[in-house]
Amino acid sequence: MTHVIKVVIPRPVWQAYDYLLPDSLSSVDVGARVRVPFGRSVAVAVVVEVATRSEHTGQLKSVETVLDRQCMFTPDLLRLAYWLASYYHCPIGTVIETMLPTEVLRARPLIVEPDFEWMAVAQEQEVEFKRAKRQQEVWELLTKHSAMPDAAIRKWGAVRSVLNTMENKGLIRRVPILPKYKFKERGIKPTQEQETAITNIVAELDNFGVHVLDGVTGSGKTEVYIRVIKEVLEQGKQVLVLVPEIALTPQTANHFRDRFGSVAVLHSMRTNLQRFEVWCRVASGEQRLVLGTRSAIFTPFKDLGLIVVDEEHDASYKQADSLRYSARDAAIVRAHDLNIPVILGSATLSLETVENINRKKYRRYHLSARPGVAKLPKFQLLDIRGQILQGGMCHSLIEIMRHHLDRNGQVLVLINRRGFAPSLICHDCGRRVTCQDCDVRLTLHEYPRRELRCHYCDRRYEIPDSCPDCQSTRLVPIGTATQRVVETLSEAFPDVPVRRIDRDAVNTNRKLEQTIAAMQHPSRCILVGTQMLAKGHHLPNVTLVAVLRADAGFFSADFRAAERTAQLIVQVAGRAGRAEREGEVWIQTYDPEHPHLESLAKSGYAGFVKTELISRKSAHWPPYSHLALLRAEGINSDEVSAFLEQLLTQVQFTSTETLGPISASIPRLSNRWRCQAALVDSNRKRLHESLAKIARVPMQRSKIRWSIDVDPIDMS
Ligand code: ADP
Ligand code: ZN
Ligand code: ZN
User: Fold this and answer.
1) 3-class secondary-structure state, position 500
2) Atom of ligand 1 at shortest distance to CA of 194?
3) Which residue lies with its CA nearest to atom 6 of ligand 1?
4) What beta strand segments (E) does 204-340 contain?
């Protein structure tokens, strides 16, 4: 009997397509790949259903080849794909395309041999090699050693053909090398709080549940993950650990390797082939402990038993284009589907997670202190009203730094702007130099060369000799950014090394690792950087953290900016006082009475969360409502706005509230005009019904690009 199969093609298509599976081809499973004719070309597609007939009335095309015998898209991933498509209102074809590594889409076969070693097979009689000298050498080598990895024996000089001949004669055989997971204590004894979290989570390993590890920076959250992971591995199951940043993976990977002996690493910087190989080894069940960034949530596991999401608040879990998914939320959905637990950990929980704890949907474990002697740093505000600033810093801040440096402490300075000065202004007419393609001011850079740069489209400009409006030659840099802070501090402390961490100074992971490694040496130095500083690095010798201008985020129009700013300040502060020496945090501000700053200084992140949740509630923002953002851009600003207006009319008779359209915070980027509108509803289901009305609206004017962002985290 001829079968009909439904396949999803990894292109922006909304539905599955029907094809005939001719008798000449073997049967096929859901989740396998097939090659099918599509339009005028062929495509690799994923089978989502095997049926006996089709609703399609036209003539069906036939499948060309079946690529997989076993299924490479596990049933739970397929369910996740459909969930993502409906939740993010994204074509199922785009979802599948996002989930699969490139090599899978290129039809590479799925089988990856495990690494193996050679062993001699005991013989009943003495083996005679006669003139086969090469074989004799290999035989002598292998009878001396118990086993030798293939790579080692080839390096020694054995060629493949000799080994194969001997294998065929039954003299030697290959044994797969599987990763071994052997747990090492490393002399760490969990604290009482860690123990509570570990026992409670371990008791729930057989069920879905979201366990939140709310632990201050340096409180040993990783140790809790490790102890729970140990139990899951001992049950023979697999574990996925998600981390937000590639920059963190080497550090974290080394840590896990040290404790378990083996860990597979998946992140987007690895080559396609490497990613694909890890993917296969996880699918086969060979690799059981996987550490990865966002897209690792799409790895097919044979028997997944636990997902850990470290730094769950981190914005990089959300993809900013195409399928705008949150890997944290996808992790929870996948865990629910598999009936396994998830651990979310952070020192600065997202407000969504806090609200889910308050509603008793998630369980919370608190790690309130750092183990051993390390103490949490104190926050202090430094009022700079009326003070003279030098490179953006007041005199007393420089004196505080001197105090720490004199005692051989290290100093961290957070200034969340790269470059030398954020704008160049005409001293006579007040004109600021802006980008020709975008509505933004140009940033002055002094290093590696003096120029103006647009931080949005990356266009670079020579520094003009005079003002284009009034021809004055008095153009002056206004404000401060990382390079200027470095310059000022190098002058103030000529004998102290000053390092810089921002996207310009450390554009590779290796450079970042080198800078962080240099800081491990307990000699005095200053590190100036942007938010790159905040990412979980361990800097045990830092005793002072100074925050410049970070409070600017408390005045932004984006309702999430305050949350992001508080998280940034607390995370950077968390780098201080991680070892024996106590740390201090100073926040320079023009606005010391700001409620957010006051609550942060008085009661830390928890204090901030309390005040911020109240204001979110009164403004009806998430987590007290559900939100989706519609963004559109095109070459004519009126057309873009009119287009969004028209989209919104689709939901005008529903109870979903609409906001906008309004210009985006940067109305023009790379010469395209940008507008946005928002849909808000207290009922999630209703919001999705409204979005469904819009999602498939065909593009009226092909010149306009538009998108839906569900649960946006960046409102710009
Ligand atoms: P977090 O991830 O919560 O910021 P880490 O897991 O990096 O904190 O832990 C900070 C440091 O404390 C690490 O060096 C870790 O080895 C150490 N540590 C964790 N738990 C304990 C413990 N129970 N006793 C002693 N040291 C611990
Ligand atoms: Zn001028
Ligand atoms: Zn620009």
Assistant:
1) strand
2) 23
3) 220
4) 209-215, 238-242, 264-266, 289-292, 304-310
Global confidence as pTM:
0.92
Nearest to 677 by CA among 708, 711, 639: 708
The candidate with the shortest Cα–Cα distance to 527, out of 498, 488, 494, 487, is 498
Distances (CA, A) of 563 to 129, 238, 278, 613: 75, 34, 36, 10
How many Å is the Cα radius of gyration of the chain? 29
Tokens 């206004």 locate to 478
Amino acid, res. 172 = I
- Number of continuous H segments (helices) and E segments (strands) in the chain: 19, 32
Expressed in angstroms and rounded, the spacing between residue 276 Cα and the centre of ligand 3 is 37
- Rounded Cα–Cα distance for residues 305 and 288 (Å): 10
CA distance 511 to 491: 24
d(CA 312, CA 348) in angstroms, rounded, equals 9
| Confidence category of residue 68, pLDDT binned at 50, 70, 90 | confident
Rounded distance, CA 305 to CA 311, Å? Answer: 20
Which residues have CB under 8 Å from 177's CB, separation 6+?
A: 114, 115, 116, 117, 149
Whether 571 lines ligand 1, by a CB cut-off of 6 Å, is no
Closest Cα to atom 10, ligand 1: which residue?
218
Mutate to test the pocket of ligand 1, among 222, 227, 375, 516 (most ligand atoms within 8 A of CB): 222
Q: State which of 223, 224, 578, 580 you would mutate to test the pocket of ligand 1, scoring each by most atoms of that ligand within 8 A of its C-beta.
A: 223
pLDDT digits (tens, 9 = 90+) for 388-421: 999 999 999 999 999 999 999 999 999 999 999 9
Q: What is the mean pLDDT of residues 285-294?
A: 94
Q: CB of 346 closer than 6 A to ligand 1?
A: no
Q: Is the peptide bond before 477 cis (omega within 30 degrees of 0)?
A: no
Regarding beta strands 584-589 and 378-383, do their DSSP bridges make them parallel or antiparallel, or are they unpaired? parallel
The answer to whether the beta carbons of residues 13 and 91 sit under 8 Å apart is yes
